[in-house]
Amino acid sequence: MRLQVSLLSALSLASGFASTVAQSEITGAGFPSLKQPVTTKALESLINRKNLLGHAEQLLKFSELSNGTRAFGSKGHEATIHYVKKLLERTGYYDVEFQTFTWPYSESTSKLTVDGQDVWTSTFTYAPGGDVTAPIALVANDGCQASDYPVLTGKVALIKRGNCDFGLKIAFAGGAGASGAIIYNNVDGRPTGGTLAQPTRPEGPYVPSAYITTVDAAGFIEKINAGTEVSATIHATVINEDRSTSNVIATTKQGDRDNVIMAGAHSDSVPAGPGLNDDGSGSIAILEVALNLAKFRGPKNAVRFAWWTAEEFGLVGSEHYVTQLPEAERQKVALYLNFDMIASPNSGYFVFDGDGNATNVPGPSGSEVIESLYRSYFDSHSIKTGSAVFGGSSDYQPFVDVGIPSGGLMTGAGGVKTAEGAEWWGGEAGVAYDVCYHQKCDNIQNLRVDVWERNAKAIAHSIATYANSIQGIPRTTRPPVSSLRVSKLSYEERIHLTCDHEDDAA
Ligand SMILES: [Zn+2]
Known about the structure:
This is Peptide hydrolase. This protein is α/β, with parallel strands linked by helices and 506 residues long.
């Protein structure tokens, strides 16, 4: 009787102005919802590129609040996480919270002009700030021996990349008296930045430095060898400060909280750029899935979405979450899905290798079930899939470390597409999956929208599947783990865990 009366009044309300309120009120009171139960097809059908791109435009605007970056703690990042939180709160479907903490932020930037012309440059972490103007002097060989360096007092050293640490080269240059140092790439293209790998070296002091392309360097070398003086100005700045920042965590109000389905993406970018692919693409995809899931009746299993902060500083937000999560709550997380870079311009379709068949790095037991769900999904769309390794380069790692079955999708970062990959997915062999990886040009034009939409639909498919049933995923008690692997790393080592960073210490 009471049910009927309430339903009736809810129905009359639903036809009027307050339909959303009425629906959430009855579901909240334990009455059957007017909404339909979620199905994979229905949730997938609500995902479209127009909505994905709408959020992308917002994220790009937010990056403009802080000089083109959404690095953690910047205005662009704060705007991003408030945007996500507000949209989720509006649905009334989720308990949404900020998990706030403080983490040290460090940023180095370099500007270079040569003979009055601006030259594109990347930078090195640990390099000192300072302003230097001096003639360029050449360093012999690859600059890995002290004997490669002439006396460099009052000079800026020009050194080729390769065969030893950047840090060693810069220290040798400082030891030889140079007031600045420029390293040039030994392969084509713009270098994505690097690290001096340790704060100090016995070989000499670090000096303000820049990191340029082979092509630019060749021009300078030619002039110098012809006896012309070439003058370089390096303007290097360094910021070191503690910043307060937040993960956004949203859990469906309904559903079994003893079987929580988790999906995550990182909300921050690198300081160098707006991070639309890395990881606007993953952040936006799970946001759209979350917003559309809210149109259905409460799920059978609770679904929790997470937007991790400071991934680019070494999986900081996800590590904080898993570390702070009490053992009993960790056990309730049935599985974790990670989406970091899913719209790379020269995309591959990579599924995390849960069973370890392709990479020899299996995920925790149950990860193979997630892998096979995604492989079947792409098979059914006649899309071939490659394998991504659980190599510690994104936010799945803290979950893997505590034994939570994990999986996810990615479309490639700085790695180079093979001939086979180009055959499978189109695009260009011999070119990086994302040529704008960790750079300023990771903007909206950098997003491959068809791949992004397909991956977002695959995410919808997986969330709807597991919201209804986690059949096949083991639910035995996992042995407790006290310390995560990432927690044992130094600040500097952590930074180089992020987003498939490769080969950047030499
Ligand atoms: Zn990333």
